[in-house]
Every structure is written in structure tokens, then in C-alpha cells.
Amino acid sequence: MVERPGIIAPEIAETYGVSLHTVTKSWSQRSEWPAPVGKRGRYKEYDRQAVADFVRDHIERQAVDLEPRRLYTAQELEEAGIGIKAGTIRADLARERWPEPDDTAHGVNRWYGQTVMTAMTGRRGYRRPS
Structure pTM? Predict the structure, then answer.
């Protein structure tokens, strides 16, 4: 099969393992999303490399080097660039989708860097299948 230079939303969804809704209602609504280069059927067509660049730069979570034995608050984790906002960490904790804090002294939830790095390996990162 010959790979077309352009890519449409259903192909983007399949390539990155996300729903069509994610592509059309979330990713493509962002200001950083590439401009269409044409149209194929009822879908706008995008440059394949521009989409790959967008996913790499704005969707994929990049590996972050946290100090394994240092305690971090949710805000410090967001600022460290783990790719998750502090509010999402707190919401996921309440929904039991984030590990319990390693320390709660003075009512402040804190996690060891190693705990966070382990949790991040299980989170969806929208990486292209090999």
C-alpha cells in the first residue's frame, strides 16, 4: 500500500490510537494544530509530518528526570513539566487513578519522584505504535 503524503482525521486517530472525537474535537481545536493542506472526501487533509510534529510537541509526554527520593507537590510536578496539570493530579487522586501520596505532613500531599515516574509509565502518552 502506498502511503499518501496527507492524512485525514480517521487515519490520524488510527495512527495515534485515539478516538476520532479526540482528533476532531480536541486536537484540531488547538491553535497549534496544523492548517489543512487539502480535502479528501468529507475530511480536511493535513500534512503527515506536521501532524507528527504537533503530536510530538503538544501531546506526547516527554520523559522528565525527577529526583527519585525528593518529595514533590502536585504544583511542583506540573512545573517540572511532567505533562499533567496539578488539578488533573488532584482529580485523578480522588478517582483512584493516581497513587496515594508518599507524605501528607501538614495536610500537603507530596510524592517521591520515583513514585511519580512509576505512575507515569502507565499513563497513556499517545505515542505512535512501533
Answer: 0.55
Give the span between the Cα atoms of 32 and 110, in whole angstroms.
Answer: 33
**Is 64 inside any structural domain?**
no
pLDDT tens-digit series, residues 22-53 = 999 999 999 999 999 999 999 999 999 999 99
Whether residue 42 is found in the same domain as residue 75:
no
Residue 27 is part of which domain span?
6-59
Question: Residue type for 58, please?
Answer: H
127: phi then psi, degrees, rounded to nearest 5: -85, 145
Give CA separation, 103 vs 73, 113, 116, 118, 120, in Å.
10, 12, 13, 16, 18
Same domain, 43 and 13: yes
Q: Within this chain, do residues 55 and 79 fall inside the same structural domain, yes or no?
A: no
Distances (CA, A) of 109 to 12, 26, 124: 38, 30, 23
Q: Are residues 41 and 12 in the same domain?
A: yes
Q: Is 38 helix (H, G, I), strand (E, B) or coil?
A: strand
